[in-house]
TrEMBL record:
GO biological process: root development; shoot system development
Name the UniProt record assigns to this protein: Uncharacterized protein
Organism listed in the record: Triticum aestivum
InterPro entries tied to this protein: BPS1_pln
Pfam families referenced in this protein's UniProt entry, alphabetically: BPS1
């Protein structure tokens, strides 16, 4: 006798099911032929909520850079999956040409920004290593040179953060029309969240670098190392340890930066393939 299993096949519960009421209602979309949101759309909404939560945590207490980059990468992975759906492609093709062109422009700006971010991280990592070596050898000139490199990288990060934050605001103001505007709107929300998180990551990197390798704070330790005196050795060693921690953090971000950059480029290529017939 064949046992009767009283179960039906269903999609697993997604992270979106545990969100607060406000985050669950950021965007409600029904795809043609379905009675509820598609699981891929639910995943995208979950990643949007997660990335917004990370941004809030960063503003409040400072979350880790690898966590922020991982959240951006996860968001783009969910967006890439959603763009494979015929319904998603149809919704994008039915939007205005200005909105479609804006999306492509946004991803180009994001790709350039993340490439620049990686270069800034390399500069900051090198500056931290140079500062640590200068402290160890008591070389004030070398320390000052490292501080100048650090400040240049921080200014570049501030510029990158401002550019992608402006992109985020632009996405939220786009006027979408068409019968599938809701689906396209969900995609716009994801792009806006990615840009806002990128701005937060860039700003967090600059804020981490500044207190850890401030030239004014560390310059007073140079004579200690140069003369090999025992005065406040713990404080000087602590400054070097902070720089070492900063180097390790930037090292950890290197792979994540590459993954995010590739995902941004791949998403833009997917969008270009979808929108090419209407451009």
């Amino acid at each position: 006798m064949v046992p009767n299993f009283g179960r039906s096949i269903s999609f697993p519960r997604t992270r979106a099911m545990s969100f607060s009421k406000s985050s669950r209602h950021v965007r409600s979309v029904s795809l043609p032929g379905t009675t509820s949101s598609h699981p891929l759309l639910a995943n995208l909404n979950a990643d949007i909520a997660a990335i917004r939560a990370w941004i809030q945590d960063t503003a409040a207490a400072g979350s880790s850079l690898p966590a922020g980059l991982a959240a951006i990468h996860a968001l783009h992975a969910a967006l890439a999956d959603l763009l494979l759906l015929p319904a998603s492609q149809a919704s994008l093709r039915s939007t205005t040409s200005n909105a479609a062109g804006s999306l492509l422009d946004v991803f180009l700006i994001l790709a350039d920004a993340h490439q620049g971010f990686k270069e800034c991280l390399m500069s900051l990592r090198h500056a931290a290593a140079e500062s640590r070596a200068a402290l160890r050898r008591g070389d004030a000139t070398r320390l000052a040179s490292a501080a100048r490199s650090q400040r240049r990288a921080e200014k570049d990060l501030a510029r990158l953060a401002a550019s992608v934050f402006a992109v985020s605001s632009k996405c939220t103001r786009l006027n979408l029309v068409g019968e599938d505007a809701e689906m396209a709107g969900a995609i716009m929300q994801a792009v806006a969240a990615s840009a806002a998180a990128s701005a937060a990551v860039f700003s967090a990197a600059a804020s981490m670098s500044s207190p850890a390798s401030s030239c004014k704070k560390m310059a007073m330790f140079v004579p200690v190392f140069a003369t090999r005196k025992a005065a406040v050795p713990e404080t000087a060693e602590a400054a070097m340890e902070r720089l070492h921690v900063l180097e390790r953090c930037f090292d950890e971000c290197d792979g994540a930066c590459n993954r995010v950059f590739r995902s941004v480029v791949q998403t833009r290529v997917s969008l270009l393939n979808v929108m090419t017939p209407t451009i």
